[in-house]
Structure of Proline iminopeptidase:
Amino acid sequence: MPTAQANGVQLAYETSGDPAGTPVLLVMGLGLQLISWPQEFVEGLVAQGCYVIRYDNRDSGLSTKFDHAGVPNLPVSYVKSLVGWPLRPAYTLSDMADDARGLLEVLGVRGAHVIGISMGGMISQIFAARFPEQTLSLTSIMSTSGRKGLPGPTRAARLAVMRPPPSPRSREQLIAHMAETFRVIGSPAFPMPEEVLRERIERSIDRSLCPAGVARQLVAIAASGDRSPLLRQITRPALVIHGAQDPLLPVACGIDTARRIAGAVLHVIDGMGHDLPPQLIPRLLALINPHVQGKMAPQTATA
């Protein structure tokens, strides 16, 4: 696995497709890795003529870990974020956007279509606002503006994400724990096939496991606050995709994101939760392809 020194951290990355193709940068979400992008999604982009760049965010996968920063107390951090008390994250989402920019510079890619999911969507929003010269377009999937007043996760989704995992020495318990989390936040109309879910989890565990990194990323999200002013600075074409049944970041978060980016096109997918089930990959590719080709599909309430 190649690595790049970018913004003072080591980032593991992978490229797919012809380097002369349309550059696409994929930014993954909380605690997940570059391998968490479904292979059929990556291959679909390549088939559409894209040069796909994936990487592990700091504190995940094979990229630099910030273990020297310690493990944050998530319940305390959550309460502080609710009452508006300052947080002291090990790093910010802006730092993570700088990581992405640094990676493109190392690879010699002058600009890319930036596609981010969940936390990766937040990072991508910051990237598009701060680095318009490196942004060909933005696609924000199941993400949020972070504006206060937006609905939060359902109780079940919040507990599923916040509960500590079992000991990594108990592989089967860990797999069961992660599978249950994905079932809680997943797409009710497009349930992940059990064999696909288990295979994704096993690959992730075997490649890297860093619960402390997930906690530090969560605090970085909480500390990033309201990005509405940044969203108003985005001038590149923007596509917002959100699930109507997302229990972690309710659909109002996607609607709000699209409203705050001038000219953004919103697609709400009925039955979709907070995951990328194989049943939805063709639909996502069909929405993204005209966007990166400069032929935006019309806005829809459902897709």
Summary: DSSP finds eleven helices and eight strands in the chain.
